[in-house]
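Continued from yesterday's entry.
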Amino acid sequence: MNKKNIALGFLGALLLTTGTAYYLLVERYDKIQPKVIFEKDGPEKKLKKEKFILYIPDDNLEKLKLQEREAEVAGSSDNLINLIFELLKSEIDYKFRYRGESGDELEAPFLDEGVKLLNTFIDGQDVYLNFNYNFKENMKTPQQELLIVYSIVNSITQSAEYKRVKILVNNKEIDRLNFYRLSKFYEKNLEI
């Protein structure tokens, strides 16, 4: 019986010790404030006005021309790049004529509204832009593709913060859009 009492006493002491330790541990974590990992942009964030230089196709759709725009920005680099793309889309809202595969003359939006920038990734001075599949489907002529790609690249790299841009489609590196190679990084080219 003596061994049984010792075992029960030991078990009781162990239970009391672990229960107290658990209580103290839980009590301590309840007092620690959670760490904010992602901040949501809300109305409490201050917006600041910034000027942007956009490179948009000229009226003849032959070269890129400079256009200055002003917009309000909420701090993060991703927001800035998304804003630049949305500003470009609003400026490139016209239709153009091209010859289809059958030789018929067709009309299409220069940059279709279905083209979406899904997300961005920044690695130092390199920017990765991930577009939906409509980006690839939108390209009808080599000139249109060249102007759209460099409109985006030149507008983003106008900031000294970014030097090169890599374009992805649906989270994948693709060798080419419809006419030009996409497997490389693009740098600003003011000759277009």
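--- second protein ---
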Amino acid sequence: MSTKPHRTRNRLVVALATAAIVMAGGCSVPSVQQYPTPTSDSAPPPTLKYRLDAFATCAEIQRKAPDLPPPLAPQVSRSATRLVSTCEFTASAGAGPFITFQVQAFGNEEDSAGAELAKTAFTAPSSSGAEKDTRLNLGSEARWPDRAGGAGCKLEVLDENAVMTFTYSSGENDDDPRSELCRESARDVTRKVFDAVQPQ
């Protein structure tokens, strides 16, 4: 009797069983790799210390610093990225003291932060006679611009996204801009106005 067909069936069964084992244990469907969802790499704009739409008005400054003379009509220019406001405080049209406060506040632009724009404006070329003030301790920097012998003292202060200018004149003939008497009066006024415009 021939056993050839039987052997052939056995080999076929073994081959099928081996293929089944390989399929079950050795081959698997590759998992789908998870990639992180793309996110924007642009940082949010820096927070502004001084908001252009909420900066203290001249009347608000005088209410917070009541020993200042009454303010005259303010001069305000405002855009989406810049505020320029000027306040004049004086007891009367013909007698001192005369106090002027001007602020330039900068908002964030597409490629520049408000603080960077203020720094650029503050460090713009000025007269060679400007000198730093080391006694005020307000803002990040303060200086006395050279007034070429004019009457009254002017003090400029950089504070984050704002450049503030304070001018003081007693109305008398003793307003040498380089005298310590005039400068100390200007510092006193600057401290009062600076405190009055701080955001709440």
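Residues 12-36 have pLDDT under 50 and may be disordered. The chain has four helices and seven strands. Will compare against the first tomorrow.
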